[in-house]
Amino acid sequence: MLAFFERSMIYPAPQADKNLQLPRIPLFEEVTFTSADGTRLHGLFAEHPNAKGAILLCHGNGEDVSYMSEELHDLQARFQRNVLAFDYRGYGKSDGKPFEAGVLEDGEAALRWLVEQTGEQPDKIILWGRSLGGAVAVHLAAQNGAHCLVLDRTFKSMVDVAQWHLPWLPVSLLLRNRYPSYQRIESYSGPLFQVHGHADQVVPFRSAADLHAASPSQRKEFIALDSLGHNTPWPDEVFQSLDEFLLSSE
């Protein structure tokens, strides 16, 4: 049963409204590009008129970019950077069906598009991953480096999370989408800013702490909040801490 329902459990993409009219926000546009296997992908790009860098935002497994325009605009204004968020295959207006290798290729394609659009080098871009998107961001950082890797309530591995939710099943033998971020992060030694909450009922706090411990970075910070759930917005003090962390990394 786990093998049969794995895709729907790991990738519960919300039902996409292909005709959704996105809000008109200045310096904001819909973009399309293709993954390595030709899959057509969709994203939202918020351009800053005096950008001092760029952010690639990799979202979680239960959302798509059609509801993220205001968030992109806020990040663009707060950090004075160009911001791209994109949908993995099977999400939003992106074609295809999600699986680990394909989702990681989609992240690579989004990073290539952002590099070509902004002229920023991959290792000068902030890679920001939330939940499942954290695994994508870790993969990209391990391959290319990053100005900073920002991990928001992500996990050591998908196997670890699945085993926590289903302790009576041999998850490690059955799961195909594994996302071993704790192994991949060993290849990234740049700045790491990570946030997690003890109240998270989707990704256990221990899994996030183990991922942070696996990082070889000499410049890393872990923000642990008692009341932060998996989908609770960050309190303003976390953004302030990230502001300070980024300033100290420049």
TrEMBL record:
Q: Which domain of life is it from?
A: Bacteria
Q: Name one GO molecular function term.
A: hydrolase activity
> Which species?
Aureliella helgolandensis
Protein name as catalogued: Aminoacrylate hydrolase RutD
Where does the AB hydrolase-1 domain lie? 54-173
Keywords for the protein's UniProt record, in alphabetical order: Hydrolase
